[in-house]
Amino acid sequence: MTAEQQVVGNVPASADIVMEQEQIQSDDVQCALLATACVKVQIRAGQSVEARALLDSGSEVNLVTERCVQKLGISKRYCVFSVQGIGSSIALRLTGMVNVSIRSTIDPSFNLECEMFVVKKITSCLPSRSLSQAQAKEMRELKLADPKFSEPARIEMLLGAQVWAEIIRECIKRFSSGLTAQDSSLGWIVFGKLQPRHERAGKTMCIASEPSDVELNQLLRKFWKIEEPSSGRYVVTIPINPRAAELGSTRAVAMKRFLQTEKRLCAVPELRQKYVDFMREYEELGHMKQVIGPSTRERAYHIPHHCVTKKFRVVFDASCKSVSGVSLNDVQFSGAKLQDDLSAIITRFRCFKIAVSADVEKMFRQVKVNPEQWDLQRIFWRESPNKPMREYRLTVVTYGMASSGFNAVRAMHQCASDDQESYPLAYKAILSNFYMDDMLTGADTQEQATSKCRQIISSLRAGGFKLSKFMSSSQRVLSKLTSTYSSERELTFPEDNNASMLCLVWNCAKDEISFKVRARDERVSNTKRAVVSAIARLYDPNGYLAPVIISAKILIQDLLRSGMGRANTHVHSADMAEVQRAAAALGSNKNSEMARQH
To answer: Span 426-446, mean pLDDT?
Structure first.
């Protein structure tokens, strides 16, 4: 689609997308029969498929399940919209839109074009239980819209108020059993009160999700909108929680910390130049924009920033407390965990015969933030003390925010989903072979690996994501990628054969993985703090080093049991002997390297 589309309607009265099941123990369980109909959906000239629909005059929208869309063999259009439920909460997560032609199984002349929104599930099987024989017999003489209205079955569509108005006719029949029959273009529609059964049963209630999740649901449901086609980048909303009203000003503390940082930078010209270059690039790429004139926003948050020198980067501190004692990170939802555990990704990586790694360049900064929230990402900046102080708004997902990891990964997953049909290999790889911005994928043959990589590159490129630092255990795969993309300067192929994967190092030339183990600095004292810090660096999610580092973990347990409360308390030298032997073993390449492929 070339433009954002948002639809806000009322949730169908029968929908149980956001629901809980509450067991109501009662001697007289009373249920209602909801109106259903069987309709023919035309898929091509002369061909149609039958589907079972729930008729809901209280719904402003028409819905269809993903299962039904697949059965019909029609493609859905991507759009962004939300559906409101009880208490105006966002109750449905809708994934697309389709146009269908509905025909009656009773009246051949009836035909209605409907716009329907796609959901995973509309409701559970209806009716909630089978009707009594007496109630079912009353309808024998009628041409029913749903001949099997009395038996529980799957609901594939929901037809709302607009369809109801088109199909309804004047004739109504009421029966002594409590049921009502309404004539319509689809046939007689049956609804009403079911006869009670003397039994203990569970009753499904359509209710809102628990209060603590309502705001998150609302934000995530109306999360996406596509920017202008010229950029194709995703625009996300920072998920703000109910504490937002507590957020105070950080203007004074952000100014104070910037002046302190500026003073340190002036003392180290080389570091200052790196900082200036970084911020210039930020502005040139449109990732921050200068504030011109007074802001019309009631709430603004100024983020302090500083640099990390070991591997230079600028860090934005959204955990800085405001005058109210609440930070920007305090008023955000961090979002759901969207990627697999690192241990699972590494295990899959070791299963491929041909392995390929890469990373997403500036992953966070490829995703834009809703302009309505730019004032929550204000900073102070100037290139030198001789220049006037300026305020800027950060326009992209910012490193250091509680929700940034979720926002960036969610945008990348949406990118894969949008092009799933065109790039099926990329869709699966992006969802299961990435850990944050690191890609660890592969295939059984060189041709398959090359094809998968090309699909991943094309899919991510459509959303503004760029892959770089490609490495592979197959030189032929790299050669094919180089011949395809190097002339476009789309990809980079480092000369170094080592790829760093958080806790591991992969030597693609040898196709071996090893562990990052630092030799212990003898000048560091054997304090509790030093020991814990050293052991914590041995990150081994798959347990490959367990036989070696178990002694270090046992030492930590012993220290905790001994009640050594002070972090600078020295550890007895005898207790360090086993740890030192383990460190020596890990320092040997022979013990820390192993074949990548199982």
So the answer is: 93
Question: Bigger pLDDT: 569 or 100?
Answer: 100
496 shares a domain with 363: yes
Residues 504 and 526 in one domain: no
User: What is the SS3 assignment for 499?
Assistant: strand
Round to whole Å and give the CA distance between 558 and 69.
60
Distance, in Å, from the CA atom of 595 to the CA atom of 598, rounded to the nearest integer, reads: 7
Q: What is the pLDDT of residue 46?
A: 66
450 and 544 part of one domain:
no
Answer yes or no: is pLDDT of 174 > 80. yes
Token digits for 198? 């003397």
pLDDT of residue 310: 79
Question: By 3-state DSSP, what share of the chain in percent is helix, strand and coil, each rounded to 5?
Answer: 30, 25, 40
Which residues fall within 8 angstroms of residue 200, CB to CB, at 6 or more apart?
25, 26, 27, 29
Query: Using CA atoms, how far apart are residues 398 and 389, in angstroms rounded to an integer?
Result: 21
Instruction: Find the domain containing 579 and state its range.
Output: 519-595
Residue 56 has, within 13 A of its CA and on its CB side, a CA count of 21
- Structure tokens, 428: 């699966």
How many whole angstroms separate alpha carbon 252 and alpha carbon 454?
49
The per-residue pLDDT of the chain, averaged, comes to: 78
Q: At 432, list the tokens.
A: 């299961």
Maximum alpha-carbon separation in the chain: 95
Residue 393's CB: how many other CB atoms inside 10 A? 20
The count of residues in the chain is 598
Task: For residue 70, tell me if it sits in a domain.
Answer: yes
Same-domain status, 446 and 568? no
242 belongs to a structural domain: no
467-472 sheet: strands from edge to edge:
434-435, 438-443, 354-360, 467-472
* pLDDT of the residue at 457: 92
288, 321: one domain: yes
Decide if 3 is inside a domain. no
Q: Is residue 537 part of a domain?
A: yes
The answer to whether residues 335 and 380 belong to one domain is yes
Query: What is the total count of domains within the chain?
Result: 3
Q: Which residue has the tokens 């405001």?
A: 322
Q: Which two tokens stand for residue 316?
A: 């934005």
Evaluate whether 335 touches 424 at the Cβ level (below 8 Å). no
Name 393's bridge partners.
Answer: 289, 378
Cα 376 to Cα 373: distance, rounded to the nearest angstrom: 6
Give the model's confidence band at 507: pLDDT under 50 very low, under 70 low, under 90 confident, else very high. Answer: confident
Give residues with Cβ within 8 angstroms of 478, minimum separation 6.
470, 471, 472, 493
Query: Quick check: 252 pLDDT over 90?
Result: yes
* Stretch among 123-127, 170-174, 216-220, 473-477 having the lowest mean pLDDT: 216-220
For tokens 């199984």, what's the residue? 105
Q: So what's the pLDDT on residue 99?
A: 87
| Residue that wins the pLDDT comparison between 413 and 233 | 413
Are residues 399 and 524 both part of a single domain?
Answer: no
Tokens found for residue 565: 């409360």
Among residues 476, 404, 409, 403, the alpha carbon closest in space to that of 446 is found at 476
Cβ atoms of residues 472 and 355 within 8 Å: yes
Contact 356, 470 (CB under 8 A): yes
Q: What are phi and psi of 108, to 5 degrees?
A: -60, -25
CB-CB neighbours of 154 under 10 Å: 15
Look up the pTM and report it. 0.59
